Amino acid sequence: MVRNVRLLLLAAILTGILSCSRDTRPFDVRVKEVLSEGLTEYGVKGGSAAVIMPDGSVHRIVAGFSHDTVAIHPDMLFAIGSITKNVVATLVLQLAEEGALTLNDPLYQWLPAYPFVDSTITIRQLLNHTSGLYMFWDNQKIWDDLKQYRDSVFSPETVLTYIRDPYFSPGKDHRYSNTNYLLLAMICTRATHSTLSAEFRRRFWAPLRIENAWLSLEEQIPRNLAHVWGDNFENDGSSRDLTFLPRTSHESITYGSSGLFMTAEDLRSTLAGGEQAVGHMGGNIGTTASMVYSRRYGVSVVVMVNAYHLKCISKLTEEVGKITLDYLASEER
Questions:
Q1: Cα–Cα distance between 130 and 69 in angstroms, integer?
Q2: Taking a C-beta distance cutoff of 8 angstroms, is the pair 325, 18 a contact?
Q3: Band of pLDDT at residue 21, cut at 50, 70 and 90
Q4: Are 224 and 66 in contact (CB under 8 A)?
Q5: Which residues have CB under 8 Å from 65's CB, separation 6+?
Q6: Are 74 and 303 in contact, with CB atoms under 8 Å apart?
């Protein structure tokens, strides 16, 4: 999980200055080349990208390996980490449209009082990270307990015991905090009398015909995972296959702020119809993912790698974005 995940302002990528010289090679060849080069540069094993063009055509490009000699395949699942927040936020906005809640509802209308949580914080402030709530990952004890009790389920109420004094009063500043989306998930389950996974499937996956989206703990994740690599939170610089090691504690702690597993193609399907160029990055155990959608250019870009590597994913997203715009410009001429 990204400890300090930032909202990516990836619109800059899509409006960057393009090279005057045009590469006439096929689009997929060019994307595969930058994926391969980026993976090699950062020592990452494999990556998957999906680009949906303005005409609706989809390009699925992969490079590198899952494990051993098994190559990355476009149908392999990756954990999308904090991009899960986008889906939770969309669910909240739908509930607001339906009148099940309002964005100005204070917490006390939906949840009991918790230490260090101002019950006058509104749903809107949770959504846009202006609540001031302490980020539970900033408490080292939760990391220690995560590793000590890897097979244990941490309830949302338990996770809230790790938060401390807020960073600022509600509405006075902006600071990214997974605690906001933990509380939003709790509100959603109360407002719908359902689970996140059931609401995601009914409201999003079924209408969009997305077949490869799964929420950890609430659903059984299929075995077609791209293997993931890292140090298993040991901070010792090692890299080993973490795919099937215990991860229950982590997945439960990130309830609402992470937990979705998807293919690159299915993740890009969730972006269409946005109102502006928007982006987000997410990370989970041994994975990093990024996405950007531009209404102006009518294009979506998703990139995933099977390592927790922010520099790698940032560079790959930028490079794929540049190639995409260059390709679109050449098609217009």
A1: 46
A2: yes
A3: low
A4: no
A5: 45, 46, 71, 72
A6: no
Q: Which of 56, 252, 264 is nearest to 136 (CA)?
A: 252
Question: What pLDDT was estimated at residue 13?
Answer: 46
Q: Give CATH 3.40.710.10 domain extents, the chain.
A: 11-84+211-332
Question: Running DSSP on this structure, what letter comes out for residue 81?
Answer: G
11-84+211-332 belongs to CATH 3.40.710.10: yes
At 281-327, the pLDDT tens digits run 999 999 999 998 877 788 999 999 999 999 999 999 999 999 998 88
The end-to-end CA distance of the chain, in Å, is: 43
The half-sphere exposure of 220 on its side-chain side, counting CA atoms within 13 A, is 2
Whole-number Å distance between alpha carbons of 174 and 171: 8
Q: State both tokens at 303.
A: 């990139």
Q: What is the pTM of this model?
A: 0.87
Mean per-residue pLDDT, 127-156: 97
Nearest partner of 254 among 111, 129, 81, 4, judged by Cα? 81
